């Protein structure tokens, strides 16, 4: 089976290689870690066993792993933890978040790459954040007798339909999982429908609630406020994790509103690093003065006439930046392609949270946040402008929706402890099995 998969992967790789080469030359993507991804990682000397392997695909998954790994290491200090990831930006975040751990590139799903990774790391448990089910990897792990856990597991309706179309391939994958710690009962039901072992599926809630900071006076937020010169009486609207055309929409609304609200400022944070230049050109062509965050340092002084609009072209600062927001628009929700982004962080800070109609990736969170009176969902640009204007005009409503959002986030916390307890149970079962054998 693995030979057929290797051949299929190689064919696909050959077919898309011109596109990959083009993207590598024009954007710099797909260059880093290529050898390690294709051949498997080389582990450092002194990696003490037993080892637990944690994997997060991108920045979002790396962020949710922070409280999980911290709690796991505190409760199970006898284990060494290693972390893998896939994207360039996630690698940068992982190396900062887990500077004392071995962080490496997740291998491509070729049999030789995953085989080398397993031999070098020799994990006692593989923990996948939210998903990333690859057949060669799961097959090799199963042959080694290593349990696999998916934590903070979710299954969007679109993903469920795709897996159901490939039931013959999907069923063995989910059946091989020793633990599926699902965010909600709906997600748990989706995994059961795909053939997961019902005893392996547990509902823990979302870990993302536990990593949320609700203190606007935390050092990172305070430092950003000082750097960006946010003054008392100003109102900050942050459009975060944006996708095309949300930056254009936000800028157009801001230009219409700033005459009505002289103290209004707009901070725009594109979701993807490779779109920073594109968004900068968009702002330049609009004729609106703006400042790039990357051009500032701790000793830089903003030119106030140009500081109404900030393009945040840096990675890893949005979590703290939300703490400056009076009004927070969560992107990836108007374009109809991405399915929304994480709205929990701005909700935790008590901002007036707004998002568009396309939030299927966070369907349950969005629905419950709205039901709690802690968010506003809009359909289009006109609705977004109406909502932003309303919250700027009515500070009492802005405070009320923010307070409800923060209270909702606080009420949902605790998933990290439940998740780590289940991982501990899995390791205990593994030890008992080895002793019995």
What tags apply to this protein structure?
7-stranded parallel beta sheet, alpha/beta, 2 domains, Rossmann fold, 48% helix, single chain, 437 residues
Notes on the protein architecture:
- By secondary structure, the chain is α/β, with parallel strands linked by helices.
- It has two domains: about 30-210 and about 415-435, 3-Deoxy-D-manno-octulosonic-acid transferase, N-terminal domain (Rossmann fold), CATH 3.40.50.11720; about 220-410, Rossmann fold (3-Layer(aba) Sandwich).
- The chain contains 18 helices and 14 strands.
- Helix 5 (about 110-120) crosses helix 6, helix 11 (about 245-255) packs across helix 16 (about 380-395) and helix 16 packs across helix 17 (about 395-410).
- The two termini are about 30 Å apart.
- About 40% of the residues are buried.
Reported by name, the CATH topology of the largest domain is Rossmann fold
Query: Could you say how many structural domains there are in total?
Result: 2
Broad shape: globular
CATH superfamily descriptor of the largest domain: 3-Deoxy-D-manno-octulosonic-acid transferase, N-terminal domain
Which sheet architecture does the biggest sheet show?
7 strands, parallel
Gyration radius (Cα, Å) is 23 Å
What is the terminal separation in angstroms?
A: 28 Å
What's the rounded overall pLDDT mean?
Answer: 91
CATH architecture of the largest domain: 3-Layer(aba) Sandwich
User: Ranges with pLDDT <50 over ≥5 residues?
Assistant: none
The helicity comes to: 40-55%
In spatial order, strands of the major sheet run 3-2-1-4-5-6-7
Count of DSSP helices?
Answer: 18
Strand content: 5-15%
